[in-house]
Structure formats: C-alpha cells, structure tokens
C-alpha cells in the first residue's frame, strides 16, 4: 500500500494570480496622482485597503494571513506606527468575539445548542422561509436592546445546530429512493439536489441572522453605537437645540418601521428561490419532539453551561434598558449618580466585552458535574476558536484607524459634500446613503459616523437644508453594510462559521446594499422626516 500524500492545493485563476493582482492594483493606486485634498498617507491607506481586499476576495492566501497585511504594511508605509497598528488587533471588540465564541463552543461541547435548535424547529416547522423568518425576527428583536454582536453570538450556535438537525433528517432521501427500487444514478441526483437546497438554506439563514441583527439595531437609540454617535454629534453641532425630538419613543416611531421594511426586503431577497430539501415535506414537528425525548432530561453539564450562557445573555440585555428607564426618573438618576460616585458603574453596567470574557472564564473554572472532573470548557475546546476570523476583525479595526488618522474618511465626506450641493433632496439623501453604505464596508461604522456626520452638519447648514434630513439617513446607512465580513461584527461572526463563502456574502450583500440605500432614501423623505 502506498503512503498517503497530503492534499495538493489546486487554486483557480484568482487563487493563482490573486497576490499579483492585489499588488498591481495597489501599485496603480500609488502611481496615480492623488486627488485634490487627499494626503499621501490617505493614498497609501487606500492602496493597502485595495491590496487587502483583493487578497480577501480571491483567496490567494489564507484569510488569516491576508488579514495580517495591514499590520505590516501600515508601519512600513509610515501610515501608522507599529504600536497603534498592533493594538487594533487586540481591540476590546476582539475580546467580545473571543468570549462569545468560547461560550458558543461550550454550548456545542455539551450539546445544548442541539436542544435549543430542536425547540426552535418545533415552533417554526421545516419550511425554509419560516425558518429564516423566525431567526431574523429573533435577531432583530434582540439587537434592538443589546449589541448586534451579542445577539448574533447568542443565536448562531442554535442556527448551526438547527441546520445540522434538519440535514440529518432530510439527508436520507437517497437511501430511501434506492430502497424503493430507484437506480443509483437517480439516488445520486436526488442527493445532489438535497445538498444544493440545503446549502441555499444555510446561506439564507446565516446571512439573514447577520443582516437582521444589524437592521434591528437601528430601531432604538441604544440598538447600535451609530445611533449614539449621531446623538453625540448632533448635540455638539447644534448645542442650542434640545434632544427631546430624538426621545426614545419618537426614535422608535420613526425607525421601527424602517427596520421592519428592511427586514421584509432582506427576507424576500434571501428566500425568494428557496425550496424545501427533498424529504423535508415529510418532516413534522413530531420528529423534533421525538428527538428531544431521545435526548432525555437536561444533564448537569447542560444545565450549568446553559446557566453560564443565560448569565451572559442577561448581563448583555438587562443593564442598558434598566439604566435608560432609571435615567427617566429623578430617583433613578440619583441612584445612578450614587453608583457612579462609588465607582461601581463598571460592575453594575459592565461592558459587553467584559461580560463575554468573564462568563468564558467562569465556564473554564466551573466543574461540569459529569462525574469525571471535567470543566465546562477546557483548552481542547478552545483550540477550535476561529483564529483567522479574530485576525480578520483586527484587520478591519486597523483599516478603520488608518482611515481616521490619515484623513481618508474626512476626504470622502468632504467630496460627498461637494457633490451634493445644489441637488434635489432625493439626490442629496440618496447620495449620502450610498456613500455611507459602501464606505462602511471597510471602515468602522462608528468612526465613520463620528467623522462624516459633522461634515454633513456643516454642509446642511451651508446649503440651507434641515440637518437631520441627511444626518439621520447617514447614521442609519452606516448599519447597512452587508457585503464584507469586516463591514459589521454580525457579518464577521456568521462568516466565521465556515459555512458560506465571501463571494456568496458579497453578491447578495451588494444587492441589499443598493436596496437599502433606496429604501432608506424613500422612507426618510416620506416617513422619518415627519416624525423627527
């Protein structure tokens, strides 16, 4: 018997030539004369962004390796020093994802995720459209009150386990066909159809989960940091005006319908061509009830892991709305001031990343109670962390920092202001939405809002337009970047599952980017402006 040999990579055209294409594109950016107002540092930042993006899209090098390009390129080009560039890779949000992934792995280790998925399927049934709708509604509802990242982390293990459970049930169609007298060729064709339809459902469900988390966040002032960034910029730009017009209830009245419309459009885009997998029609709720019965009662490790995850979810969900309601009363405000005076705010209202890491550490420390001395999470489990995705996050933060430090974001904002002067309102709002949507594909949406919104405030005053008419859709559009994993944390998290490709995300995300820009333009002109 001959020795087995390691598999040989056989990349396609872009895989073979992606590195050279990226270097060529970056060289062209550097060779061209910089546009008026663009600094040399901004031009170099744009070149590094192009190189990194080409490597990501072509897959010429592994994702994690491509994500290290900004770490070395920015210091070599003099754009950022090594310290700030490397600090971007240990951003607090990286630790939020790290802790969240560890909790998800803990759920998977003790099979809690399968139990949750089976309960979900009992409720939704196996219709692909209903399954996607159910998860999108859950993600959007959660992200109205907690961070989009936390909402995605909470639901992703359930979604993946549900896909696995559904695949196991409908995957035996080819065996049944053969047993009933079908030919091997027919069985193979049936299996291929099943695989293709199952993958379509996988892509639709995971993208729907990520998109819904981003879309739900715009419905409340606390749902996403870009909303808070807008309020902060508005207060500084127009100090004489009250923020009462942007109260919690008025904001929800204005933007909850926007969120709902976008959810319906996104759901339609993802599910219009979904068909049940072969054999799915025979799958009833009784099957999932039977699977739950087969799992038996919750074991001690399951209960403890579920308790740790529930603690994390509670600490992500409760403090924000609780403090918001307390601030609305005089007594509550006094309590908050007393807590702050004693230095207890970080404990009473911990940061999301702190919650994730503390609960992950708790899972490492707590005995599983399985009679073998195991812990809820051990390092063998942690070795399965998607380290390449964590590096991807770091690359996104490094790019965002470079955009800010070199003035590239400001340059884009100023060019936008120059372009929209004297244009009709619908052109003005539409252009702002398009630019913000695609700009935040490769920059931090919060940083972009913090830089571009003040520019738009000045432009609005100069051309005699109500500032909120362009600032509000700009802030909302910053959450409408659906193409790239680095665009939003939810995108990166579902991409980290390894069940969809960057091309699949980019193709569908590009369409929703355009749809979102049109939708937010229309809704701003005909609804939001009437409320706010």
TrEMBL record:
Q: How does it sit in the membrane?
A: Multi-pass membrane protein
Which keywords are on file for this protein? Membrane, Transmembrane, Transmembrane helix, Transport
Q: Which domain of life is it from?
A: Bacteria
- Segments passing through the bilayer: 17-34, 46-73, 93-110, 131-156, 203-230, 251-270, 306-324, 385-403, 446-464, 470-488, 509-528
Is Nucleotidyltransferase tagged as a keyword?
no
The subcellular location is: Membrane
Pfam families documented for this protein:
Na_sulph_symp (PF00939)
GO cellular component entries: plasma membrane
User: Which GO MF term does the entry hold, naming one?
Assistant: succinate transmembrane transporter activity
Protein name as annotated: Sodium-dependent dicarboxylate transporter SdcS
Q: Which organism is it from?
A: Alienimonas californiensis
């Amino acid at each position: 018997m001959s020795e087995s040999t390691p598999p040989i990579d056989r990349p396609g055209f872009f895989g073979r030539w992606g590195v050279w294409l990226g270097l060529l594109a970056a060289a062209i950016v550097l060779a061209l004369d910089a546009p008026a107002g663009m600094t040399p540092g901004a031009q170099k930042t744009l070149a590094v962004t192009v190189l990194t993006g080409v490597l990501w899209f072509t897959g010429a090098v592994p994702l994690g390796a491509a994500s290290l390009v900004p770490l070395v390129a920015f210091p070599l080009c003099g754009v950022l020093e090594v310290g700030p560039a490397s600090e971007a890779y240990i951003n607090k949000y990286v630790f939020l994802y790290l802790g969240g992934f560890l909790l998800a792995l803990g759920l998977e280790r003790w099979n809690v995720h399968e139990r949750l998925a089976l309960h979900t399927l009992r409720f939704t049934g196996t219709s692909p459209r209903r399954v996607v709708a159910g998860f999108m509604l859950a993600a959007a509802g959660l992200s109205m009150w907690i961070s989009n990242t936390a909402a995605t982390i909470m639901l992703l293990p359930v979604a993946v386990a549900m896909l696995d459970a559904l695949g196991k049930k409908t995957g035996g169609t080819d065996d049944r066909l053969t047993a009933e007298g079908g030919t091997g060729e027919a069985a193979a064709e049936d299996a291929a159809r099943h695989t293709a339809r199952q993958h379509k459902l996988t892509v639709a469900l995971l993208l729907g989960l990520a998109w819904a988390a981003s879309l739900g966040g715009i419905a409340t002032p606390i749902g996403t940091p870009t909303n808070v960034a807008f309020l902060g910029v508005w207060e500084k730009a127009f100090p004489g005006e009250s923020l009462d017009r942007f109260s919690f209830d008025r904001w929800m009245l204005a933007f909850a319908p926007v969120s709902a419309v976008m959810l319906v459009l996104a759901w339609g885009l993802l599910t219009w061509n979904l068909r049940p997998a072969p054999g799915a029609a025979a799958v009833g709720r009784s099957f999932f009830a039977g699977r739950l019965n087969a799992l038996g009662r919750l074991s001690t490790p399951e209960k403890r892991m579920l308790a740790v995850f529930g603690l994390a979810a509670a600490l992500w969900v409760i403090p924000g709305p609780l403090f918001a309601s307390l601030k609305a009363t005089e007594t509550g405000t006094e309590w908050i001031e007393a807590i702050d005076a004693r230095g207890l705010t970080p404990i009473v209202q911990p940061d999301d990343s702190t919650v994730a890491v503390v609960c992950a550490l708790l899972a490492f420390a707590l005995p599983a109670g399985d009679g073998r001395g195991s812990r809820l999470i051990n390092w063998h489990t942690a070795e399965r962390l998607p380290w390449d995705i964590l590096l991807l996050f770091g690359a996104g933060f490094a790019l965002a920092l470079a955009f800010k430090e070199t003035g590239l974001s400001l340059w884009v904002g100023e060019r936008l202001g120059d372009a929209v002067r004297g244009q009709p309102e619908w052109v003005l709002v539409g252009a702002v939405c398009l630019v913000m949507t695609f700009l935040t594909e490769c920059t931090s949406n919060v940083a972009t809002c913090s830089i571009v919104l003040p520019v738009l405030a000045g432009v609005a005053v100069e051309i005699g337009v109500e500032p909120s008419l362009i600032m509000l859709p700009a802030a909302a559009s910053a959450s409408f970047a659906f193409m790239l994993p680095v665009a939003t944390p939810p995108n990166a998290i579902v991409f980290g599952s390894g069940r969809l490709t960057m091309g699949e995300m980019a193709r569908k995300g590009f369409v929703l980017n355009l749809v979102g820009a049109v939708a937010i333009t229309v809704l701003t002109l005909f609804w939001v402006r009437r409320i706010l």
